[in-house]
Amino acid sequence: MEIWRLPISASQRGKLISAGYTSLSSLSSISSSDLARELKVSESEAMNILKVASHSRGSETSNASCSIVEGAQSAWDMLHDEESLMHITTSSADLDNILGGGIHCKEVTEIGGVPGIGKTQLGIQVAVNVQIPNDFGGLGGKAIYIDTEGSFMVERAFQIAEACIEDMSEYNRFLRKDFQECKIKMLPQDILENIFYFRICSYTEQIALINYLDKFLSEHKDVKVIVVDSVTFHFRQDFDDMALRTRVLSGMALKLMNLAKRFSLAVVLLNQVTTKHTEASFQLALALGDSWSHTCTNRIVLYWNGNERYAYIDKSPSLRSASAAYSVTARGIRNSSSSCKRIKMM
Amino acid sequence: MARLANLETEYPVLDSTVRNFCASHGIFSVEDFLIHDLYMLAAFAEQNNSSERLKEGIAQVLSIIDDMHQPWLNGMELLEDAKRNKHVFPTGIQGIDLLLGGGIRVGQLTELVGPSSSGKTQVCLRTASNVARNHLVLYLDTGNSFSPQRIAYFLGKTINPSSAQAKNQFLQKVMSNISCHSVFDIFAMFDVLHQLESYLRCQDGRGDCQMRLLIVDSISSLISPVLGSSSTQGRALMTSAGYLLKKLAHQHNLAVLIINHTVGGEGGYSKPALGDSWKCIPHSRLFLSCDRGSNNYNVSILRHPSMASGKAARFVI
C-alpha cells in the first residue's frame, strides 16, 4: 500500500483510499481536475497530491549510476571531511583532551548533571568560545542560546567574554614574536552581540522555535553552535501524556540532528538529572527517559567526586570512555587546579 | 489497485458495458472485484445480453490480478537459493560470530536492541568495515553517529601495514565501498529505500562488486515520532518499513542490520522499543548490554531462526 509512504495529511490519505487509489501507479494517469472531482477536494489540493506522488515516483526513474542513492557520501570522503572539521574548545585543556579537541560540529552533544555542577557555565563558555577567530584556532562563528529556565546571566557572559579576550591577548604575546601591534580588535561587547538569545516559556514555544531555526539559520549562515539550556525544563511538569512526550521529543531530536548536519554546526543540549530505581537501589540518571537518551550523538555526564567537578564521556561513536576534572572559576571553565589531575581512562 | 475506469486505457476490453455491469453489482475497483463472489457474477453475466463481452472483461481482470502475486517456489528451489545466495557474513567480532554460528545471514533482517551506549553502533561499524572488504555497504544514519575514524581504526587493526602508502590504498579501496546517507524522517527513509530498490534491480544483472549489507542506525528514531498517536498511521508506516526491508533482503540478497533502543518495562527491566507489533518483524533479535565502565559487552539472542533463544556470549570491542 504505497499511499502510506506519501507525506500528505491523514484526511487526504483517507479520501484517496476510500476512492480506491491505494498505489502510486494508480495516480499516474489521472489529471488533477478529475482527482479533485472524485475526492471532493479543491483543485490546488489535488495538484499538490499529484506533485508529491510524482516526486516519489520520479526519484525511482532518475537514478544516477554513480552513487547508490542521491546524497550518499562514501566513507573515504567523509574521513577527509572530518579531518578538516574544527572543534569548539571548552577552555579546559583536560576536558578538550578527552573530547578529542572540543565539542564536535555536525553532532548533537548532550551534557547533563546535578544542579550546581556548572552546566549553564559550560553553555555560556561554549557560546563565547565559538567566536574565537580562525587565527587563534577557533571557528569564528556566532552562537544561538536558547534559554528555557532563565538561568542565562548577561553579566556572567560579559565576564567570561572579557576573560576570553584577555587569554587571546596572552596567546598573541607569547606566540607572535613580531613586534607589531597585533592587538585583539574584539571587545566583550562584540562577543555578546554575536550571541542570539531566545527565551522560551513553554514546550510549544520550544518546538516552534526549533522549527523556525531552519529559516533563521538559512539567513545567518555563520552560526556555529546552538546551546539549549535546558532541554528538559518544559517537559518535566505539565505532561500527562507520556506517549505524546516521547513523540514530541524524538521529533525534536531528529530536527536538531538535521540542522547540525545541514549547517555544519554543533548542538549542545543541557539536561537535568532524575533518580532511577533499579534493583532496589537508587541511581542518578539523566532526565527525559530511555528514548531520549538514545537520540543524542554524544553524552557527557558532569558529577562531583569529593570536592572536584568531573566530566565523564558516557556515549560517543568515536571517543573512548574517560573522565577529566575541570573547575568553574571567575574567568569561566578552566582546568582543575588540584595536584592530581590525571585523566582517568575507563 | 486502480478503479476499473482507469484501466480502460490499458485494457480496452473493460469498456463501459463491462463497467456498468460491474457497477450494478457495486464493483468500482479491482479490490471490490476480489471481495465479490465470482461465481455469482459469472452467473449474472450469462443472463445478460452481451455475456461474451462481460466474460472477457471478467477474465481480463482476473489475469491482471494473477500478475500481481509472487511466483510460487517449491522446497528444492528455496534450498538452491539458500545455498547459492544466502551466505553468512561474519561481523568481525568473535563473540558474536560464535554465538550466531558464523555471523549475520543474507536475506534476513537482524535487529540489535540495547540500552543507550551498549555498543550497537560499534557493532554496526565493525560489521560494515568487515563486509566492505569485498562488497558494497549502505549505512543510513539518523543520529550523525557514523564515524569514518572508527572504520579506519577497525580496518587498520586487521592488516599488517607494509608501508603507509599501501595502507592508504587499502583504506581507500575499502572505505569507498561504504556509502553513508543521513535520513532524518521516515518518509525520507522510504524515498531512499525506493531508490535503493531500483539500483538493486539494475545491479542483479551485473557481476561486479555488489551491495550486500544495509544498515539502518537507528530505525527506532525514525519511527518514534509517528508511533502511538490516535491515528494508526504510525503503526502502518512501521510495519510497511519492516516488510520493505525484508523484501529487499530476500529478493536482492542483502543482509539488513537495524538498531532499536530499549524502554522501561514492568519490574524495571528494559524491553525493546516499538512495541509488540514490531516484535515479530525482524528475523533475528540480539540484545546487547555493557558492563558499566569497562570494555566488556554482553549479547544474548532474543529471537533467531536457527539458534536457541536465551543463549548469551560476551565480547570486547
TrEMBL record, chain A:
Signal peptide: none annotated. GO terms for biological process: meiotic DNA recombinase assembly; reciprocal meiotic recombination. Keywords: ATP-binding, DNA damage, DNA recombination, DNA repair, DNA-binding, Nucleotide-binding, Nucleus. It is found in: Nucleus. GO terms for molecular function: ATP binding; ATP-dependent DNA damage sensor activity; crossover junction DNA endonuclease activity; four-way junction DNA binding. The keyword DNA damage applies. Residues 84-273 form the RecA family profile domain. Its main location: nucleus. PROSITE patterns: RECA_2. SUPFAM superfamilies: P-loop containing nucleoside triphosphate hydrolases. It comes from the Eukaryota. InterPro entries: DNA_recomb/repair_RecA-like, HR_Repair_Mediator, P-loop_NTPase, Rad51_C, RecA_ATP-bd. The keyword Zinc-finger does not apply. GO terms for cellular component: Rad51B-Rad51C-Rad51D-XRCC2 complex; Rad51C-XRCC3 complex; replication fork. Involved in the homologous recombination repair (HRR) pathway of double-stranded DNA breaks arising during DNA replication or induced by DNA-damaging agents. Belongs to the RecA family. RAD51 subfamily. This is DNA repair protein RAD51 homolog 3. It comes from Gossypium tomentosum. The lineage of its organism: Eukaryota, Viridiplantae, Streptophyta, Embryophyta, Tracheophyta.
From TrEMBL, chain B:
InterPro entries: HRR_RAD51_Paralog, P-loop_NTPase, Rad51_C, Rad51D_C, RecA_ATP-bd. PROSITE patterns: RECA_2. The keyword Nucleotide-binding applies. It is found in: Nucleus. Its main location: nucleus. Residues 85-262 form the RecA family profile domain. GO terms for cellular component: microtubule organizing center; Rad51B-Rad51C-Rad51D-XRCC2 complex; replication fork. Keywords: ATP-binding, DNA damage, DNA recombination, DNA repair, DNA-binding, Nucleotide-binding, Nucleus. CDD domains: Rad51D (cd19489). One of its GO terms (molecular function) is ATP binding. The keyword Cytoplasm does not apply. One of its GO terms (biological process) is telomere maintenance. Pfam families: Rad51. It comes from the Eukaryota. Involved in the homologous recombination repair (HRR) pathway of double-stranded DNA breaks arising during DNA replication or induced by DNA-damaging agents. Belongs to the RecA family. RAD51 subfamily. This is RecA family profile 1 domain-containing protein. It comes from Gossypium tomentosum (Hawaiian cotton).
